[in-house]
Recover the amino acids of this structure.
């Protein structure tokens, strides 16, 4: 009887530990009925939300992977809610620059394009000028923590979203849709 309890307790603790380690990564998937392509979106919520007009807004960072036949593609997506562009370096009518920091490295900047919802941005380039998305993604895989600074719309001052990036590389590798070409 003691061995049965020990085994059960071991399984229970293993299950709880697995749940705690993976609870900050959310995975969504689907299939396009028109062309049978498939997609997976891996999202990591920020550690804390910010409040605007009494509403809690939780930023997310994520990767959306697409597969059509043998072709693979991905986007790095940042959901911030509406942001102020006044005072930010606006690179063009459809590009913004956000300040970021990986682990304890020096802060850097990356270029993002707003999506049609006006609250989500797709990464166009990484920390250094002309850095391809693939290298930016590899930097995200090796980081334990990501900080992203932005000013929420009609909010006094900047907000720094903190993301726990551990487990992102492993989750990316688990999905057929998520491959670097």
């Amino acid at each position: 009887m003691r061995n049965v309890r020990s085994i059960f307790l071991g399984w229970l603790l293993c299950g709880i530990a697995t749940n705690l380690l993976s609870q900050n990564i959310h995975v969504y998937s689907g299939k396009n009925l028109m062309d049978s392509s498939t997609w997976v979106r891996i999202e990591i919520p920020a550690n804390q939300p910010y409040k605007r007009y009494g509403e809690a807004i939780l930023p997310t960072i994520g990767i959306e992977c697409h597969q059509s036949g043998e072709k693979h593609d991905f986007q790095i997506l940042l959901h911030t809610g509406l942001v102020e562009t006044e005072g930010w370096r606006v690179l063009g009518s459809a590009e913004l620059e956000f300040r970021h920091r990986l682990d304890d490295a020096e802060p850097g900047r990356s270029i993002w394009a707003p999506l049609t919802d006006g609250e989500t941005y797709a990464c166009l380039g990484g920390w250094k000028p002309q850095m391809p998305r693939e290298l930016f993604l590899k930097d995200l895989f090796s980081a334990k923590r990501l900080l992203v600074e932005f000013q929420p719309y009609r909010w006094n001052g900047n907000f720094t979203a903190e993301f726990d990036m551990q487990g992102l590389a492993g989750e990316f590798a688990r999905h057929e849709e998520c491959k670097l070409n």
Notes: The helical segments are 2-22, 133-142, 168-173. The chain has three helices and twelve strands. The longest strand covers residues 60-68.
